[in-house]
Design goal:
By secondary structure, chain A is α/β, with parallel strands linked by helices. Chain A contains 13 helices and 27 strands. Chain B has about 80 residues and is an all-alpha fold. Helices cover about 60% and strands about 0% of the residues of chain B.
Chain lengths: ~500, ~80
């Protein structure tokens, strides 16, 4: 697999340069190579050959990033486990992915029993060896778990072939990174935008700047940008909403590329942001985890017209290795300008959800496209495409929401809330707050009740970003003309 | 403004935004110690404090707010 050889080559070529800046501390590629080799040696001696999916505790340190590369050199996949997520959720992932070994750089192991833990901070030094094993295209690079409708997260496996196709298509966009670049990595490692944020810089010998977990993200990003003169960033638009009141104070002429992904990007904020980063090309990229990180791209044009819908920038056109179509309910392509569900195909597309045939039947289908029988993925995103081929995002076709770029199935929140409420009905809604970020509200069909126990329960089942921030009560849920709960009306209860 | 007055006002802001008062207003108090004080509510708390004291924080100052003591003395220096 060329991708893994490219990683090896880049690390070896850039030994004297900085690979990471983590919590104000620099680590060179030479150091990275040493830590990778130590971890790799432990993997070889402790993990059986048939064990392919390995758990990784997502700390913000060199060992955690080195673990990813070490696993890849051995042809193994990583499954990120956020130590701040509820134990029950992590256990669900461990069981589903059949994880038997966990790499953990914490002072004290996060998972105590049942599993083998390799403590990556306490390893002996071994000779540096970055030569990859023979890896096949179908071997998995990672499995990321996203919110699922029935209270169980679903796994998205991504192969080395998928990842190579992404990297190939990313370079083709011509947002180049060189060894001189300083790149932002603002994402939790359970979020696939993190993969692009560390992998692309490593492939070019650039330096990756991370965010310590105990810092307030948006203000720390701003300091990194100014103090370290970052040149490349990929962010979720909600960071812009947080920073917006302070735009006047921000001046980052060093930034060359400013990419956004994960949520709708409003045109007005983008315009204002462009004055904070006067020399940067701004791009809006789009894609679900299922299609490896992102797969469509639009470059914002300064001082000229940009295509929008309801003030939201277009997500542009397919990248090199992706083909998109927009279909009606019967999977027929709709005419130009008509709206339908956006479907994706191509080399970046996951082989399918992890051990979940029901979901796979729902989400993937075959269709004759340009004379070939092609497998497509239904994104659940309502879109239309114009005569130039630019795709406009109109909204969701289902009840999914995005919180700070994380995908959230509202039904998963409802599922757990109803368990805690003991048969009292509850509806979760995603609403836009005063600073234009999305928050989760919960409406309970009852008189006002004490919610401390409910919230305590939800915190043991859901990651923090999925726990409702506001709760309202109503005697009876309003119904729409179809006789279904009128979620729109319920949403209006929040502001 | 008196430190005690500032502390009282900040405590009220926290109670309003977080909808509980399960915290002790010591100088060593950090966001981690308080239920529901995450990056989203942090933004709302900061905005509310700016309103209450009629002051304006700089973005750079926000990173220096490591604990309650730092927050209170920053407010005092501005009001």
């Amino acid at each position: 697999m060329n991708l893994i050889f490219d990683i090896q080559k880049s690390i070896e070529e850039h030994y004297d340069r900085n690979a990471f800046c983590i919590g104000q501390e620099y680590h060179t590629y030479k150091e990275l190579a040493q830590v990778i080799s130590n971890i790799r040696s432990a993997i070889r001696s402790k993990i059986k050959g048939d064990e392919t999916a390995i758990g990784l505790i997502t700390n913000d340190d060199l060992q955690t990033y080195a673990s990813i590369i070490a696993l890849w050199l051995e042809g193994k996949a990583y499954v990120p486990l956020n130590p701040e997520f509820p134990l029950s959720r992590n256990h669900m992932i461990i069981t589903q992915a059949d994880i038997r070994t966990i790499l953990d750089s914490s002072e004290e192991n996060v998972f105590k029993d049942e599993h083998q833990t390799i403590a990556t901070k306490e390893l002996n030094t071994f000779p540096v060896d970055l030569t990859p094993l023979e890896v096949s295209k179908e071997d998995l690079a990672y499995i990321f778990f996203t919110s699922g409708t029935t209270g169980t997260p679903k796994g998205v496996p991504i192969t080395f072939d998928n990842l190579s196709a992404f990297i190939d298509a990313f370079w083709a966009l011509d947002y180049p990174i060189t060894k001189e670049d300083r790149c932002l990595q603002m994402f939790e490692l359970t979020f696939d935008l993190s993969v692009m944020s560390y992998l692309a810089p490593i492939l070019k010998g650039a330096c990756v700047y991370t965010i310590p977990k105990d810092e307030i993200k948006y203000s720390y990003i701003f300091e990194l940008m100014e103090d370290y003169e970052l040149t490349f960033s990929l962010m979720v638009p909600s960071i812009l909403h947080y920073l917006r009141p302070y735009f006047e104070e921000i001046d980052c002429p060093s930034l060359k590329y400013s990419l956004f992904c994960g949520e709708a990007l409003p045109l007005d904020v983008t315009q204002e942001w462009s004055t904070c980063v006067p020399n940067a090309a701004i791009a809006n990229v789009y894609g679900p985890t299922e299609c490896t990180i992102f797969c469509t791209d639009y470059t914002y044009v300064k001082n000229a017209e940009n295509k929008t819908h309801n003030g939201v920038l277009t997500i542009g056109r397919d990248m090199k290795n992706t083909a998109t179509i927009i279909v009606d309910n019967d999977n027929n392509e709709v005419a130009i300008g008509e709206s339908g569900e956006l479907c994706l195909s191509g080399a970046q597309l996951t082989p399918g959800y992890w051990k979940n045939e029901t979901k796979n039947k729902e989400a993937f289908f075959y269709k004759n496209y340009k004379g070939k029988n092609i497998r497509f993925y239904r994104t659940g995103d309502l879109c239309n495409v114009d005569a130039d081929g630019d795709i406009l995002y109109l909204g969701r076709v289902d009840f999914q929401a995005k919180i700070q770029g994380f995908r959230v199935e509202l039904s998963e929140i409802e599922f757990h809330a109803k368990v805690a409420l003991d048969k009292v009905n509850a509806v979760a809604v995603a609403f836009t707050n005063a600073i234009h970020n999305t928050e989760i509200g919960l409406v309970i069909e009852s008189d006002t009740i004490a919610t401390k126990d409910l919230l305590e329960y939800l915190k043991t089942k859901l990651p923090a970003y999925m726990v409702p921030t506001q709760i309202k009560y109503i005697q009876n849920f309003p119904l729409n003309t179809n006789g279904k709960t009128d979620r729109k009306k319920l949403k209006e209860m929040f502001s | 403004m008196e430190i005690t007055t500032i502390k009282e006002k900040v405590s009220n802001v926290l109670t309003t935004i977080l909808e509980h008062s399960n915290f002790e207003m010591s100088d060593e108090l950090t966001a981690k110690d308080v239920d529901g004080w995450d990056s989203l509510s942090h933004m709302m708390i900061i905005t509310k404090i700016e309103e209450e004291f009629d002051i304006r924080f700089k973005l750079r100052e926000l990173n220096k707010l490591k604990n309650m003591g730092a927050l209170v003395s920053l407010i005092q220096s501005k009001s």
